[in-house]
Every structure is written in structure tokens, then in C-alpha cells.
């Protein structure tokens, strides 16, 4: 028996009043291998039960990028997956138009359904293909904000999922972080912002981000570590970059590390500061 269609009619969730307007789209009828889940405010997202699902990484890069570029009118999402980063960005940047690029056909198909349900079709241009293909973005205007959540690891440097949709989100099947920086810089408007989320442990991972940005002519102006558990060694980070030539000459070495974000305390409970951060993007705290 198929799951029933999902309708967005409930204004609250476990005592939390959802912010933002109701989507203008229609219902979603999920398949047997799919779920329909809350994304931000009244937005929802279609995901595979056993495939790639949106994550803390997506939430963080959408929040960080839109926070440091709140006036963006054109946004590019590289390696957009099932559309979670772009749709969170669209919830925060109400007037912005989005171009998303994703290589996997199934992910693009899921994103199209979510975009339609959330009433975002007029603001979204979803493209399927490898973002490194020079023809894929050849005719587009430059972007005020570029968002990206690159895979962290070269193939073979860890246990790779047999699920191709999941594997491509963690392993570099179609380019590494330097490729994301290079393509982002190529399509950045004057004064624009690039925001990336990436693994920050071991320490060599940070070098991959900073070196990739510099090679692309970008300066990492500020960044924050994100610890998924308060005292775990493994952690990720979010970064904000500007084109180096857009900055004054004395800003070439500017790289501000902000205070870390902690997702969960040692007792397993969400950190209060992270709960407040979730409210800023329409997530239940």
C-alpha cells in the first residue's frame, strides 16, 4: 500500500509554531521507497528511504552562506543533490533565484518534486550534469552567492557505500573541493560570496580548502569549526570566501576563525546555541 499524499496544513510541530508562509505548490504522493520530511518552516523534501538524505552539512552551509550574503538575488548551488541546500537558501532569501547543478538523475527528479511542492518553480532552474562541464553554465549570468557541500574524501580513503547516490555525496566521484572553488569563482558576480562546508579533521583537510580557494583566486575571509559532539576529534567547518581581487590589498591574508559551533553536548542533548541557530532557518529547535 502506498503512502498517502502529504499536505502542508499543520501550523505547529510538537509545540513549535512553524514560521513563514504556506507553500503555494500542491501535494506530494511519496513512492514506497520514499519519505516526505520537514525541511524548514512549512517546506518539505522528498527523499529516498535508503539513499542520500539531507544532513547537518546542508543546514549549516545554507545558513552560513545566506547569513553572510543576505542581499543575494542570484544563487548557484554546485552538486546540489536532492535540493536541500538550495531550498533552505530559498526559504531565507525570499527574492532570490536559484540555479542548481547535480549529476545524478534520481536526485534531480526528487528535487524537482520538492521544488514544485514548495511553490518554488518560478525561482528555480534545476540542471542535470557535471558542474565541471563548461557548457552547463555557459550562458548564465554571474551569481551573488555560490553554495557548495563537496564530498570530503578521495575514492578508496574509507568505506564506500554500495548505494551510488550516497557514495557520491562523500567520495570525490566528480571533482574535489578545488574544483568546486574553481567553478564557483568562475561564476561569481563582483563582490559575491562563496560558502562551502567541508571536513576539518584531520588537519590536512583544512589545507585542501584553503589551498583550493587560493588557487581559484578566492580568499577565505572567515570560517567556523562545527563539532557534531562537544569533544569528538572529528569535525566539519563552514567557510565564507570572496574573490581576492574584490578585496582591498591589505585583506589578502584575512582569515578570521569564529568561535566553534557545537551540535550536541557530551550528554547527547542539542547545544542551546545550535537550537537557536536552527530557529534561524525554520527548523524545530
Set out the fold topology.
Layout: E1 12-13, E2 16-17, E3 34-40, E4 43-48, H1 56-68, E5 74-78, H2 84-92, E6 97-102, H3 105-117, E7 124-128, E8 143-148, H4 164-170, H5 177-186, E9 188-199, H6 204-215, E10 218-229, E11 236-243, E12 256-264, H7 272-279
Parallel strand pairs: 5-6, 5-8, 6-7, 8-9, 10-12
Antiparallel strand pairs: 1-2, 3-4, 9-11, 10-11
Count of strand segments: 12
Strand content: 25-35%
Rounded average pLDDT? 90
CATH class: Alpha Beta
Shape field: globular
Q: What is the CATH architecture term?
A: 3-Layer(aba) Sandwich
Termini separation comes to 33 Å
Helix content: 25-40%
Gyration radius, rounded: 18 Å
The CATH superfamily label reads Vaccinia Virus protein VP39
Q: Uncertain regions: pLDDT < 50 for 5+ in a row?
A: none
Total of domains: 1
Question: Order of SSEs, N→C?
Answer: EEEEHEHEHEEHHEHEEEH
**CATH fold descriptor:** Rossmann fold
Largest sheet: 8 strands, mixed
The structural class is: alpha/beta
The strand order across the widest sheet is 7-6-5-8-9-11-10-12
The count of helical stretches stands at 7
Amino acid at each position: 500500500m502506498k503512502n498517502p499524499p502529504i499536505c502542508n496544513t499543520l501550523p505547529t510541530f510538537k509545540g513549535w509554531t512553524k514560521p513563514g508562509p504556506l507553500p503555494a505548490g500542491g501535494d506530494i504522493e511519496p513512492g514506497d521507497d520514499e519519505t516526505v520530511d520537514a525541511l524548514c518552516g512549512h517546506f518539505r523534501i522528498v527523499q529516498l528511504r535508503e539513499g542520500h538524505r539531507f544532513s547537518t552539512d546542508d543546514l549549516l552551509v545554507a545558513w552560513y552562506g545566506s547569513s553572510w550574503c543576505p542581499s543575494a538575488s542570484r544563487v548557484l548551488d554546485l552538486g546540489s543533490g536532492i535540493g536541500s541546500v538550495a531550498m533552505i537558501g530559498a526559504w531565507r532569501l525570499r527574492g532570490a533565484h536559484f540555479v542548481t547543478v547535480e549529476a545524478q538523475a534520481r536526485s534531480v527528479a526528487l528535487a524537482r518534486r520538492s521544488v514544485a511542492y514548495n511553490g518554488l518553480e518560478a525561482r528555480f532552474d534545476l540542471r542535470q550534469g557535471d558542474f565541471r562541464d563548461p557548457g552547463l553554465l555557459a550562458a548564465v549570468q554571474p551569481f551573488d552567492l555560490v553554495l557548495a557541500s563537496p564530498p570530503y574524501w578521495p575514492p578508496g580513503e574509507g568505506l564506500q557505500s554500495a548505494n551510488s547516490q550516497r557514495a557520491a555525496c562523500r567520495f570525490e566521484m566528480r571533482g574535489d573541493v578545488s574544483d568546486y572553488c574553481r567553478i564557483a569563482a568562475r561564476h561569481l558576480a563582483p563582490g559575491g560570496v562563496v560558502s562551502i562546508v567541508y571536513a576539518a579533521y584531520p588537519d590536512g583537510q583544512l589545507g585542501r580548502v584553503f589551498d583550493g580557494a587560493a588557487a581559484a583566486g578566492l580568499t577565505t575571509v572567515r570560517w567556523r569549526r562545527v563539532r557534531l559532539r562537544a569533544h569528538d576529534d572529528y569535525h566539519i567547518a563552514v567557510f565564507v570566501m570572496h574573490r581576492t581581487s574584490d578585496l582591498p590589498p591589505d585583506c589578502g591574508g584575512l582569515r578570521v576563525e569564529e568561535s566553534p559551533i557545537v551540535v550536541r553536548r557530551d550528554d547527547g542533548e542539542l547545544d542551546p546555541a545550535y537550537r537557536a541557530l536552527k530557529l534561524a532557518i525554520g527548523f524545530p529547535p
